Amino acid sequence: MATLSYEEPFIRITGLKKSFGDQKTLQGVDLDIYHGETLVLIGPSGEGKSVLLKHIIGLLNPDDGKVELEGTDLSHMKERELLKMRRRMGYLFQNAALFDSLTVAQNVAFPLLEAGLRNRAEIYKRVQEALELVELGEHKDKMPVNLSGGMRKRVGIARAIIGKPDCVLYDEPTAGLDPIVTDVIDLMIQRLQKRFQVTSIVITHDMGSVFKIADRVAMLKNGVIYFIGTPDELKQSPDPEIQNFIAGRSGMCA
Amino acid sequence: MGELLESIKLGAVRGRLMLQQIVTIGYGSQAVVIVTGAFTGAVFTAQSYFKFKDFGIESSVGGIVSVSLFRELGPVLAGLMVTGRVGASMAAEIGTMKVSEQIDALRVMGAHPVDYLVLPRFLAMLISMPLLISECIAFGLAASFIVGTGIFNIPYAWYWKHVVDHTALEDVSFSMIKGFVFGILIVLISCHQGLIANNGAVGVGLGTTRAVVYSSLSLLVCNFFLTFLLNYFFPLGSAL
Q1: B150 touches chain A (CB under 8 A)
Q2: Closest Cα in chain A, distance from residue B97 (Å)
Q3: What kind of fold does domain A10-88+169-247 have according to CATH?
């Protein structure tokens, strides 16, 4: 990470509120994300982690509050302006959201084509590279329906990173994957950060991943940021709620 | 809807996607439209003949069939068949993409869903619809000719003379303008229903049903008003 005494945050979220009907999902989230860091977002299911991520990339509009990317407010931007902003970001959907009418390779090439790249050889080379990074080089001509859940997710990751974005948002990149692939993906997130200074925001429930990849951890609970700090601070937090969450104790008896 | 206008103004036309859609909408709908046109032409000829015979003017069957096909039956029937075949699949396809977050995936990767999904379908429909209607009318007339001359023994020349006498370029314009309008209605309603689908499989089903119902009904209502409007510019009987 850059060691400036004062650093302008890459993404600044202030007072973000969002409700769906009666359900108040986000109730005033404040969060700064800095260039080149890996921020891991943890918290109970259904507390709006994905909703927060979708606000960062402008898929959802907040009821109140702002999301700023390098000082530009995204929350009231028109869709067409947002499209340009979004090309700087990659997004991995929880269910991968691959285009089921396109092959794996076509899916992965999509962001390049949208960005206006037309050189076939270059596209082919970069698709191959991205797929090899997630160890799917030999499956490039398959259709997404013929892939397992884990493979789909890895294709989603390849698609999210192929455009060399400044920032990648991962919505549960390792859920449903075996421990080895989980490790591969964790290493890949770290590698992208080290090599290209990619900023990553990762939602995960895998505490092993949290301590492996995070520069900072934020816990979202009851619609606000309940905790933010380094993984060490998280580990040493005296708060029983946090300790129970890390250790996976529900307090129920069998 | 406004988004589509903006998209037409700004969006680069995706040629390959548009060609794909022309194949699905236009090429793929031919069989349905031909059969519809042919049997409607045939049955309309038969019914008209039975009645016209009472007045002894059975040879003018060709004229009424031709004018009806051009002005009403061709555009409306082809429009309804295309609604059922193409409108439903548009709403279902786009709706499924919506509920499986593929629309969001498009947006994330910098592709405007209207540019990517609606515009190619819209343009493909504008190209396909007039052709499909022409085909529907042509096969309707051919069937009418076969039934009229083959079964009811109307002399070829008389039959054909009435067709030519009663049909003019105005009638062709009539059918083509209707075709454009119906095509626009079908695409806008079906794509819109797809894009607002939510609530999983049920939502996609609902959106598809609505797409077909709303498109067909608006097509029929719109047809009534169009007939009056167009008749002002191209009055019936001007060919006589």
Answers
A1: no
A2: 8
A3: Rossmann fold (3.40.50)
pLDDT tier, A81 (very low <50, low <70, confident <90, very high otherwise) = confident
Reading the block at residue B222, the tokens are: 């719109």
Whole-prediction pTM: 0.85
Grade residue B11 by pLDDT with cuts at 50, 70 and 90.
low
Q: In chain A, where are the structural domains located? A: 10-88+169-247, 95-164
In this structure, are residues B183 and B33 in contact, taking their beta carbons and an 8 Å threshold? no
CB contacts of B100 in chain A (<8 Å) are 95, 97, 100
Q: Residues of B with CB below 8 A from A115's CB?
A: 110
Domain with B109 in it: 15-233
Please give, rounded to a whole number of angstroms, the shortest distance from the CA of A185 to a CA of chain B. 21
Task: Say yes or no to pLDDT of A3 above 70.
Answer: no
User: Locate tokens 């921020």: which residue?
Assistant: A39
Helices (H), chain B: 2-10, 15-22, 28-55, 61-68, 74-82, 88-99, 102-108, 113, 119-145, 156-166, 169-195, 200-233
ipTM: 0.85
Interface of A with B (CB under 8 A): 54, 57, 59, 79-80, 82-84, 86-87, 89-91, 93, 95, 97-100, 110-111, 114-115, 159, 163
Q: Are residues B110 and A86, on separate chains, in Cβ contact within 8 Å?
A: yes
